[in-house]
Every structure is written in C-alpha cells, then in structure tokens.
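worker-03 picked up job from queue 'complexes'. Input manifest follows; two sequence lines, order preserved.
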Amino acid sequence: MSAAQEPAVTLERAREHGLTDEEWQRILEILGRPPSWSELGVFSVMWSEHCSYKSSKRHLRKLPTRGEHVLQGPGENAGAVAIGDGLAVVFKIESHNHPSYIEPKQGAATGVGGILRDIFTMGARPIASLDSIRFGPLEDPKQQHLLRGVVDGIGFYGNCVGVATVGGETTFHECYRGNILVNAFNLGVVEADRIFLANASGIGNPVIYAGSTTGRDGIHGASLLASAEFDETTEEKRPTVQVGDPFTEKCLIEACLELMRGDDVVGIQDMGAAGLTCSSFEMASRAGTGIEMDLDRVPQRAANLTPYELLLSESQERMLLVARAGREEAVCAVFRRWGLDAVVVGRVTGDGRMRVRFHGKTVVDIPVDPVSASSPELDRPAREPATLRERQKLDLASVAPEEAPGEALEALLDDPNFGSKAWIWRQYDQLVQGNTILRPGGDAALVRVKREDGTPTRKALALAVDCNPRFCFLDPRGGTIAAVAEAARNVACTGARPLALTNCLNFGNPEKPEIMWQLREAIAGLGEAADALGTPVVSGNVSLYNETHGVPIHPTPTVAMVGLLEPWERHAVSHFTAPGQAVVLLGETREELGGSAWLALRRGLEAGLPPRVDLEHERRLHRLLARAVREGLLATAHDVSDGGFAVALAECCFLGEADVGAEVRLEAALRPDALLFGESTGRVIAATGDAAALLRAAQEEGVPAREIGRTGGARLRIGGRGAAAWIDVPVARLRAIFERALPRRLEAGEAGAERGGPA
Amino acid sequence: MFAVVQFPGSNDDRDMRFALKSVLGADARLVWHAEAELPPGTRAVLLPGGFSYGDYLRCGAMARFSPIMGAVRRFAEAGGPMLGTCNGFQVLCEAGLLPGVLRRNRDLHFVCDFVHVRVERAAAPFTSRARPGQVLRLPVKHGEGAFCASREELARLEANGQVVLRYCDASGAPGGNPNGALHDIAGIRNEAGNVFGLMPHPEHAVEGAIGGRDGVVILGSLVDAVAAARGGA
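worker-03 finished. Artifact:
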C-alpha cells in the first residue's frame, strides 16, 4: 500500500483505532481537517492509555517527587538520584504484562530490553535488574508454561546483554490466571553531571536513527495491547508482540555510552511503545521544538513498509538521537563500529510541528504540543466497590485457632508463594559486572558501585521490590502503604538507607469506577508512605486493563526501593550466620491476622483489614538498622512479612548455605496463631553477638525490641509462655520442603506434558 | 601486558580486566576483536565470557572468524599462555585450539551458581598457586557448558593429564556437576599446556565479600607465570 492508496479516514476508522468520539473532535480541531491515515495512527498511539496516562495522570501529579538527592523525577525516561561523590543512580520499573501473557518468552525478554534502554538512554550503565512476576496457581499447566516462558525470556535477554539480575519476587494467585504480571526494573550508574535527557533542542541539529532496522513487528504492540481488556481475540494479537535481540542491545549500550562520554549528543531517547512516533514527539515536546523527518531514510528490514507502519512499528533495540550539527558523521561512525545502523533521518525545526515525508510527500503535519504535552486527560468516576466493607469484616473470635502450628508452617513453606525461587534465579546471571554482594533469595540485593572506568567505590545499592496484592485488594490505600514500607524495610535490613522509589501500578479496567477508586486510593497511599519515609517517587509506570473476561487482577502497585549503603563492607544478611547469637525481635506484634497468608491458606479466607502500618515507627526502625549495621552489632536482619514470624524465623535458619537452628520464646498474651503467623508490619528478626548493645540502641532510637532466644542446634523451636513448644522441627526438614516447593510442581507438570497431557 | 579480547557481545571483558588490573595489579587491556594484531608486549591472552555475536548460531562459532583470531592462533601456537573462560572456552573449542565441544546443559536451563571444582593438575602457568586436589569454589553461569568429546579424545585427555579442573562436591568427592559435562570436566588444557579453557569464572571470585577469593588461585597463577617468563627472559 503506497501513501496514495491509504484508506480514507472517518470517525469509524478512528473508533477502530480506539479513539473516542470526543478525541476525534479534538483531532479535527487541532488539524482543522480530517487526519491522514498515518496521522490517525499517530494520534491513536499517542493518546492510548499506555502512552498518554490519560486516566491516571491527574492523580499521579500529587505524588511526592522531589527530595534533596533527586536529580530527575518522573517525566524523563527514568528517575535519577544522587548518591554522593559525583555519582548518581538512574532507575525505573515498567510493566510488560499483556505481551508476556500472549507470548511469554518474547514478552518478558522485550520487557527487560525496554527498561534497559530507559536507563542507558540517560547515559547510565545498567548494572542491576529485578523482576516482579505474578502468575495464576502453579498447579495449572498453562501457568507453568507462562512461568517457564517468562523466566526463559528474562534470562535470554538479561544474560546475553550482560546485566546482572539480582533479585525480584514471584507470586501466585488466582487473580492472575488470565492476566499475568511482568514488571521489570533496572538501575544504572552515571556521573551526576553527565545525565542525558530526551530533548530535541538546537534548531538545525540532525536527528539520527540508530540500532536495529524497522519491521512490521509490534505495530500497536505496547500501545494497543496494554490499552484494552483481554478476551477470545487476544490470541490473534500474537503478531503484535515484539521480538527481542539482546546482542544488538548490548552493542547499543556500549555504542551509546561511548558516545555519551563525549559532547556530540544533544538528546537521546529509545523507541519504545509507539516507536518512532512517540520518541520523536516526546523529544520535540520537551524541547519546545519541531522535527522534520524523511521516512525513506529509516533502515528497514521488510519490503514495502507504509508510512503508517514505519511510524508505529515497535521493532526493538532502536534509538533516536539529536546530535550537534556537523557531528553526524562522528556519531554514526561509533554505531557502525559496533555493527549497528545509524542514519540521519531528519532535523530539528523551530516551528513546533512534526513534519514527516515519505516518497517526497508530506504524510504527517501535526503541531507537537497538542498531541504530546497537552494530550487528553480524563477525570474518570471512582466508587468504592460495594463488597469492600463486607470483605473487610473479620471476627477473629469466629476463626478457629490453628490446631497444628508445625503443620501450618510446613504448609506455608510448601506454598509456591513462599517456597524457594532458586529454580528461577539460578537461570539468571546474577554476577556479571562483578558487583553482586548479596544475591537473590534474601530481603534485598546488594550491589557494589563501580565508576565507568572500573574504579570500585565503597558505595553499594540495596534493591528490593515488593507488593502484597491481598493487602491491596482488602485496602488499596493501606496495602500500598504496606508495600512501600516493606520495600523500604527490606532495603534497610542490609544496613542501607532507603533513598527513593519507583513503582508500577497494575490495575484493571479504569473505565469501571471501582477500579478507578482502587487506583486513586493506591496512589494516595503511595504518596503518603513515600512522603513519610522520605523516599520520593522518581519514576514509574501505570498498567491498566489487566482484566480478562471482565475479571480484574487484585490491585498490584509494585514498589521498587533503592537504598544506599556506605561503606558496604559492613552489612547484614537475611540468614543466621553462626550458633550462639542472641535472637532479637524488633517491632511489635499485634493480633493482626486480617489479609494474612495463614488465613488464606489454612482457613480459605481472604478477608479482614490488612495490618496497619506505623510509618513513624518504620522510619525509626530504618534508622536503628542502619546504625546497628554501622556499629557492627547486626549479623542478621530479616524482615517479617507475609507468612508472619514463623516463616521469617524458619527462613533465617535455612537461607544460608549451612543450616543454623534457633530456639525462641514468644511471651506476648496474644492468640498463638497471631504470634506465629500474623503479619504485623514494622518487624525484623535480628541476630547479634551483643544483645545488650542492640537493645540499648533500639531503646535510644525508640524501637520496641525484645531478646527472644538464641541461634544454634539443628532444630527450629518456637515456644510460648507454656512449657511445650508450639513448633519443634528439624531445620533440614523445613529446608527440604522450602527447596522442593517449586521444582516438585514443575517436574509434575513436565511429567504430565511427557505423557501427552495438557501442555 | 595481558590482552583481554573484546568481541561484540563479550560481557565479562571488563570484569576480567578488573580482576587482573585492580585486584592483581597486572597491566591488562581490552583489545578490540577487529584488530589484526595483538598489541606489542602481549604476554598473555584472555578470551572472556559473554555472548559473542549473541551466540545465536552456536556458542563461539562466529567469534572464531573475528579478525583478531589469526593473531590469537599464532600467539597460542608460539606457546603464549592463553586462558578462555565460559564463552572464551567455547571460542577456543570452536577455533580448534582445544579439543571437544560444549553442549547444552543437561537440564536445558541456563545455570548461574557457585560450584566446587577440584584442581587435577597443579602446575604453571594456570594452577601453580593450587595444591594438587585443592577444591575451589567458583561461579558458573552458562547455558551451554556440558563438555563433550569422543571416547578416544576423553581417554587421551585423561592420559595426558589435560584435565585441569573437575566438578566435585565441597569435600572434593565426585558430584556437583552442574551441566552434565562428561568426566565432570570443568576445564582442560591443550597438549602443550599453554592454552586453558574452563567454564567457571575466576574473574568473579577475586574479592572476598563479592564471590570469594578462589579465582585468584587461577588468575594469580597466570600473573606469576608471566612475571616468571619476563624474569627469565
């Protein structure tokens, strides 16, 4: 189809592109004429939910995004935070949910590739990735297929591109059966005064296209797939999933970083969702300029691509740069040395318009700002779900007490949500670049910072990603606050100071007032917690329409926290390191079983109010942990979260290479199952060689603390006020259950597939 | 000078340079694959890990055609010490500088973890700092690491003492093979003894708190050998 044969554009066509009647009217006003076919494509992607954030942006504006260390908040490719000595970290988390459900390997792989580009686009070398992935119940063969595919994709891309995958979370819940979540986080390091922005400034400067060629892959991939619910036709959208090439990405990283050490690059942005269109509009919009482009110059991998396809293709591993005039050859030469295409495709103009030519004809002529910065903004109605109050009611007196705490602990450890994720992270290179101090499996990963020239520093970054969707389902605001608090606590458990966060808001269809209410509440909670903990929101992403057949996922505001530890040589770990140490419980246990994993697993109830979060206490706790690590008082600090105290203590015993048992006594006058499995927040299990000093420090910092027992032996014993222990099990037995939880289910799935069962 | 060859897609090139230069104090530099010659003064060549050319065809199969490989081959044939880790080992096998091939892991998954290897041959230039039978704890990270060779070739390797490292458990007893390598082979040398390929990554075990220090046994041996050769020359 040549430009001349493009279909006539009508309201009908606009509706097929997902545009509303109001948006169509707005297009007519902006242009003063009906759009061309290519222009319609441009408007439809630029104004899609995925690219425009039209449902969420009025709420996101309320988030705290500034702080003394924040160099760049939301609005650029990623956020940037100073870490001292002229260095900064650049980080962001982003969803690739819909593509990963349709084609798990490539969906997840390109999710990793996309987030990496957001980081090195800013001049930072990506050093560490995390992934938060969520599936339906693992017994379902389809979910196993999705898990295998997603893990394969993350490994395929991350391993090849040479960036360590150092942590993450994997959970399973019925609500994700028809809508899995794949949220990919990356962090890079950059000299603070060498951060590059996505600006097309300098009239007359060349616009350069670099990286992979453009094909038909992924047209409307991110933008359309992620802007509608799933149904039977979803499978037909498989061709709209992009395909990743991590080798090209690796070469792009090296070429871009090499270029950005010099002064030839003015602005740079990756071509992600909505490809060439989105990147060029955003760059021009930020600089208040225009761009004229000639599509015939775009390197192409398929014959007869139309302008519509060239503008909307989501082919991966492509960058758009604005260079200094006269330096285009020098810039292109660096890309060529790395075996990459690089061509001048246009120039920056001063008239604020996007003009695109194809075969000598102008196919797009649109003012930049009305499409980009002033894109539609909706104030969607929000209403508390009618059933929420009912769900929040939980009369604990009517919940039968746990009759067999030992069995309950084993059942929890055997649950895929708690069982070891080693089967997953062993498939990821956790070590490349040689900075990984704490590997996956503990509360947070810890990664040493090197300068770009390879000089090691004494700074390390603690990274954690968290969300308890059950809490968020029962109370979106409180659950989101709990997610921020938990992520910060995980980071603090290493001894690091939480610095700033990024988030990925995964929700259902915002056109439903109940979903909109969840989203609004979650954003409010995010803001409240980020503010109270002094950890601004520096970047993020919103993923809506996570529904299949009208059934939404639980609200899942994934929070990734970044903390700084210096000097890193002193840090705490999540497991017991030696016998004979005092075990100290920091924080207070209340009778909080609402929303707990125990209640769901042992009583089949997803009800009650989640535990409340005292953000002031959290802050004091973080301060105490940092101080205790600095003073050498803490060998072990492990966050107590889902599964409660018993699960956390068991993990302390077997998360290390060697088992270390423990004997503790919980003397509070609460029902024993609340002591063992309640999920009161703000608690940490600590082990120390100097209990007196730790207790003194806790008192000075205003954190409740109690010595509850000692490490040692081969058994885990937890008792109460009475003589008999509630739980008394060999650690080796618990470890075996924990380590087999995932493999035994996956092997059963493999055996089923080999017998010709459902694949 | 230690030349660390940088292929497009090499990932551990900078880490190898870091281990040699920042930790062991050697003069190590990256050498771009498109060069026709190794820099003057090259005393040892290192082929690093990674995914040269994406390893889309077969691991190391493209890299062996890189322009630098002619000079690399001549360096090896002249008896210069050469160490290939992971992808570098695969390149050495593809280039015919070492026998055998590295096949897909037994369970078909990429594996990244710490393993134990027993030093079968403690000798210069790669393992002089080890005791015979010493057990090292080193990381592996590969999808294609199962060493494989014909029965005759394996017999020859064993008879010549070319097996340098063998997977084992923490005590040195058989076990702990992460990928299904035949004879538990983790690393071999050529007949002349100057070319060594191994799947584990010594460069990721040089700093104590970051992966342990056992990698120094191997890289330090190479540094010693180069220093000795210079002293003798």
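worker-03 released lock.
The interface with chain B takes residues 155, 159-162, 245-248, 250-251, 337-339, 425-437, 448, 450, 454-456, 568-569 of chain A (CB under 8 Å).
Chain A has a mean pLDDT of 94.
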